[in-house]
Amino acid sequence: MQSNVDPAEIAKFEALASRWWDPESDFKPLHDLNPVRMGYIDSYINVAGLKVLDIGCGGGILSETLARRGANVTGIDMTDAPLQVAKLHALDAGVENIEYRQMTAEDLAAEAPASFDVITCMEMLEHVPKPGDILKACHTLLKPGGKAFFSTINRNPKSWLFAIAGAEYVLQLLPKGTHSYEKFIKPSELTRYARRAELSITNLRGINYNPITKGFKLTDDVSVNYLMATEKDKQQ
């Protein structure tokens, strides 16, 4: 299934692939954000020994962190160059419990239903045409009682000001054109996608960026970046 792929989005990340693991490059925000995202996951579940799927893994920053926690990780993405970077970095770092594959979540769901204890899908939903289909695929891929974690960006004037005008143009934290405002997802919309996919929502938290300390932290304010924790029913 190729219908849930935006070629323009793929091209953006292909062009930046070589810089993925440089903590001072265009991907510095992902490196800075990664401990916050991992801490959020850690607060819900110990991934050691579990089968974990990282959807939209890119160059593998979160995938490697999950693997270093002892998880058996599958990272999937539709960008070839970042996946090659991810494979080389894992090899160089001696991280063996990761498998990277170039495929969509929908295709993997058809191939391997009910295979994963945990799914992560971070900063990816705002880059696909049909984010709701990703959540449906997650439900199929999860084992009964499995947990899925999502992060994305709210859609409102404040998020445009902070995530696009501020991050891309003023502070230059991200390359210009990284995000498209119309693809941002309101929490109410992500909630609706989750319910339609039969995923129970267990938590919603915001992520705040402090331009003075240049750090991220969890907050109750979901007006810009936010995380959502969900769970598949144990009887399904």
From TrEMBL:
It comes from Reinekea marinisedimentorum. Pathway: Cofactor biosynthesis; ubiquinone biosynthesis. GO terms for biological process: methylation. PANTHER family: METHYLTRANSFERASE (PTHR43464), UBIQUINONE BIOSYNTHESIS O-METHYLTRANSFERASE, MITOCHONDRIAL (PTHR43464:SF19). One of its GO terms (molecular function) is 2-polyprenyl-6-hydroxyphenol methylase activity. The keyword Lipid biosynthesis does not apply. It catalyses: a 3-(all-trans-polyprenyl)benzene-1,2-diol + S-adenosyl-L-methionine = a 2-methoxy-6-(all-trans-polyprenyl)phenol + S-adenosyl-L-homocysteine + H(+); a 3-demethylubiquinol + S-adenosyl-L-methionine = a ubiquinol + S-adenosyl-L-homocysteine + H(+). Belongs to the methyltransferase superfamily. UbiG/COQ3 family. SUPFAM superfamilies: S-adenosyl-L-methionine-dependent methyltransferases. It comes from the Bacteria. Its EC number is 2.1.1.222, 2.1.1.64. O-methyltransferase that catalyzes the 2 O-methylation steps in the ubiquinone biosynthetic pathway. S-adenosyl-L-methionine binds at residues 37, 56, 77, 122. The gene is ubiG. This is Ubiquinone biosynthesis O-methyltransferase. It is an enzyme of class 2 (transferase). Keywords: Methyltransferase, S-adenosyl-L-methionine, Transferase, Ubiquinone, Ubiquinone biosynthesis.
